[in-house]
Amino acid sequence: MRLTDPRFLSERRHKDFKYFLETQAGDLSIDENVDRIVEMCFSKQGIPGLDATFWRFENIEVVKDPELKKEISREIKRSDRSLGAIARILIEKITEFSDCERACVKFPVDVGHLAELLAWFPDCKIVHITRDPRAMAMSKTNDPSGTAIRVLQHPRLAWLIRKMTVWLVIAQYRRTSLQHMRFKHLPNYRLFRYEDLLADPDMVLKTLCKFIDADFTEDLLHPEKGRHEHQRSSLTGKQPKAFDANAATRWRTLISASDNWLITTLTKRSMERFDYNPAIHPIFRLNRHSPASAGERCEEPA
Asked: I need a labelling partner for 29 at 20 to 30 A (CA). Which of 96, 172, 213, 250 fits?
């Protein structure tokens, strides 16, 4: 069962599911309040804290089944009614009613909450995916649904907004590397690098399948032939389907010399924690025909 980001936990600036419970639930020791929040969760009304893609339940037909809501309410009432219990019950019951045996859930903004997620789902497998911080910075600064909107709202602050976004990515990458060092010894945690995947999809996918106890099949190497739900690239505006090695290095056509130096300098130690060395990574050898090599400077386009 593939589920998008439910935002059960996120950064403080986000109105997440915890915010929803704090502002809308009332006293959950009262059964009527439990029934009410379950109805709200499936209402698709964009309530603050329930405005992530997850709560639109796209392509999840079982949410129309009234028995699902009844079962979730019953299970919550039997639990300690905590945030973690409610999160676990929602995921487990949606998965069960969809006739699936296990769920795969995206938690892209929750890397700082791995301890809570492991406590809520002790038998889960944490697949931590990271990528070159310079690529992330260029993606964020060109994000049409994020940075671009803020720039349009405040055009005079465009340069400052983009620079603050770069600094935010640097801070997040450094913090995430420390989280990796904290949890990397756990048998149900594994780090995967985006650059490794695009350089050698066969090897990485076989490693992933072994880790999550799934069978590897050749069709995994051809995602373009299956169900496709990837978001559009913030750099090209296109919706990628097949594995494209160029996607790992396309950021080099956008990054300025100053940003390249700044990000590389301030994340060098974090890259080492992730065992990532762009100077010798094969993805850069595969893309030598690109406009700039791994260490070259590129002027930021006007």
From this structure: 96
